[in-house]
Specification:
binds zinc ion, disordered N terminus, 27% strand, Metallo-beta-lactamase, Chain A, alpha/beta, globular, six-stranded mixed beta sheet
Length: 233
């Protein structure tokens, strides 16, 4: 953050503020993202302890207008109905997750891959990253830079590929090409506190994470101890 002689930050140089909160009993991370210029804010995966997430926003003077979902496994959306009702926010998620979200939060709009969702003066870019489940979205904050990875990438690991709809080959592509293609200094905010540190960087993960080092489908399936999928052609 740059500051002038009086110590005040120049708002134009301060990107989105990210508050990472560990909630619930499964070491889930939720994020509250706020624009320091406008006070507009977004919640990511409001799973548990919604009152705590909303208190963080309130204490910062932020107004939550958007809820971003990485996917709809229960431990990422358990508090979605409460958060949506309390804020009136519009939920943004992968198209295949809309039908799951609608009963919890009627104001839901699918994103497209690469779409930039505005948060105040900045934007958050949707990256479709299937593999854990087909509807996984990572949320990239290019101005920070930072990426919120849900259950795709953890610090030193990655999400499971044994769920309904899981696809190890798609997971390798998401990890190697999509996330691995981000600038190395991009800060990684995972969906669970499973690593040695709460966040890391893409560069650190590329160098140390066995899920990233397993750069072919065969090596990845060996690492995850799952069968190598049969070719579809
Ligand atoms: Zn999951």
């Amino acid at each position: 953050m740059l500051a002038d002689a009086a110590g005040f930050a120049d708002a134009r140089t301060v990107p989105l503020v990210i508050e990472q909160l560990e909630v619930g009993l499964l070491q889930n991370f939720c994020e509250v993202i706020g624009c320091p210029e406008t006070g507009d804010a977004a919640l990511v995966d409001p799973a548990f302890e919604v009152d705590r997430l909303l208190r963080v926003a309130r204490e910062r003077g932020w107004t939550v207008s958007t809820i971003l979902l990485t996917h709809t496994h229960d431990d990422h959306v358990a508090g979605l109905d409460e958060a949506a009702a309390a804020t009136g926010a519009v939920v943004r998620c992968h198209p295949v997750e809309v039908a799951v979200v609608e009963p919890l939060a009627p104001r839901v709009r699918a994103v497209t891959d690469g779409e930039r969702v505005r948060v105040g003066a900045f934007s958050v870019e949707a990256m479709f990253t299937p593999g854990h489940v087909p509807g996984c979205v990572c949320w990239y904050l290019p101005d920070n830079p930072a990426v919120i990875t849900g259950d795709v990438l953890f610090v030193g690991g990655c999400g499971g590929v044994g769920y309904v709809g899981s696809d190890p080959a798609a997971m390798v592509d998401s990890l190697q090409r999509r996330l691995g293609g981000l600038p190395e200094h991009t800060r990684v905010y995972p969906g669970h506190d499973y690593g040695k540190t709460p966040t890391s960087t893409i560069g650190w993960e590329l160098a140390h994470n066995p899920a990233m080092l397993a750069d072919t489908v065969e090596r990845f399936c060996d690492y995850k101890n799952v069968p190598v999928p049969m070719p579809t052609r």
